[in-house]
Structures are given as C-alpha cells and as structure tokens.
Design a protein that fits this description.
alpha/beta, 39% helix, DNA-binding
Length: 229
C-alpha cells in the first residue's frame, strides 16, 4: 500500500486530509511539527511527503532542503497559504514536485498526489484499476459505461462520477461531505441536499429495477456500495 507522510500543524486539517488519503487507499503518517516531520522523512521510506510550509520548529523549505542534502529521494508536495510567485519558485527550486495553495478542495489534492505517484519511481506500482465489478454491476472508467447484467445504465456524468467514487471504495461508508467535495468539488453545506437528490436518482437507476440492492444509506453517516445478506 502507498505510504504518505503528511506534515501539518493544524490538527483539523491534518485529520481531514489524512482521513481522505486513507479512504483513497493510502497509508498515512502524520507529523505536527517540522523536526518530527524531518526525522520521519529521513528515517522512513515514503512514496510522497506532503509538507505545510509554515510549521513550528522548522519550516517546510528547511525540511526539503535538509532532506535533499541528505540525498532523500522522496517526492514532496507543498501546502501553503502563501500565493507569492517567489514562494512557489523557491519551493520548486528546492526540488518540490508540486505546490498547492490553501484553501483547496481535497479532490484537487488527491488528483495531484496521484499524478506525482505515477510520475516517479516511488509510484511505479501505483496503478488505479479502470474496471470495477460488484455482483452483476460493472463499471468501465475508460469507456464511461456502467451495466447491471446485460442492461446498460443510462447515467448522467455526475451520477457516473458518484457511482465511480462509491465502487472504488466498496464496503466503505462515504460521508456526505466527502461525496460533495469529490463529485461536485464543493464544501459541504448542511442546507444543500444535492447529495441526497443525486443518491436518490442514482438508486432509481442502479437498484430499483433489480432484486439485489447495492446502494445503502447509513443513517447519520453517509452512503455505501456493498452486497448485503
């Protein structure tokens, strides 16, 4: 499993990002300050390090500079609230793979992480499947086709994206906030029922005509795609 180092001193942000990365199938170690982050980076093997720039003890630039001087090959993605061109250039010149300015959507971070993992030797074994199956449901990402048995499901682009998110994480409950972020690239708003509406429409096509139900609601938590007895 792909192992990621996240160095972020804001506890809420660290918890949110690490949870999302784990839900995406990665192992995540979290450090809350610069010295701990540098120690982990130099003593353990990671496919990628995600560094906040402003950290207690050592800033992200110092961590990366020290790691490169110690011949650490781990790719680095910077997270920062600073959008100055000089700051971005500095990070890239030190050897960072990418630079993401806060605030950002988790879906964008995940996309950039996957690009970096595919690009380097560390991500050589990271290959996302293009076809998923569950019972008589099949989803082909390349052909953008979903079927149940011999029936092709007529899904809108958002319904297909929603189903893809759920089938990639079969058996894992997806909170409404995660769905809203990754399918609609929006922050979850409790007054918005876009997720519920989309789930209802997807269920009408995916489950209602068939005896075996695959899309389930976990009340107060979210939604999950799985086979239940």
């Amino acid at each position: 499993m792909t192992k990621i180092l996240l160095v972020e001193d804001q506890a809420t942000a660290a918890a949110y990002l690490s949870q999302g990365l784990r839900e995406a199938g990665m192992t995540v170690d979290v450090a809350s300050n610069g010295p701990d982050g540098l120690h982990r980076l130099l003593t353990e093997h990671y496919a990628l390090a995600i560094l906040d720039v402003m950290l207690p003890g050592l800033d992200g630039w110092t961590i990366l500079d020290t790691a490169r001087r110690a011949a650490s090959p781990t790719p680095v993605l910077f997270l920062t609230a600073r959008d100055d061109v000089e700051d971005r250039v500095r990070g890239l010149e030190l050897g960072a793979e990418d630079y993401l300015v806060k605030p950002f959507a988790f879906s964008e971070l995940l996309a950039r992480v996957r690009v970096i993992l595919r690009r380097g030797d560390a991500g050589a074994n990271f290959k996302e499947p293009t076809r998923y199956e569950l019972a008589d449901l099949a989803l082909d990402l390349l052909k953008h086709r979903a079927t149940r048995g011999a029936d092709r499901l007529d899904l809108t682009p958002k319904e297909f994206a929603l189903l893809a998110l759920l089938i990639k994480r079969t058996g894992e409950v997806q909170p409404r906030a995660v769905i809203a972020d990754q399918v609609w690239d929006m922050n979850f708003d409790s007054d918005t029922n876009v997720v519920e509406v989309a789930i209802r429409r997807l269920r009408a096509k995916l489950d209602d005509p068939y005896p075996v139900k695959l899309l389930h609601t976990v009340r107060g938590v979210g939604y999950v795609l799985e086979i239940r007895d």
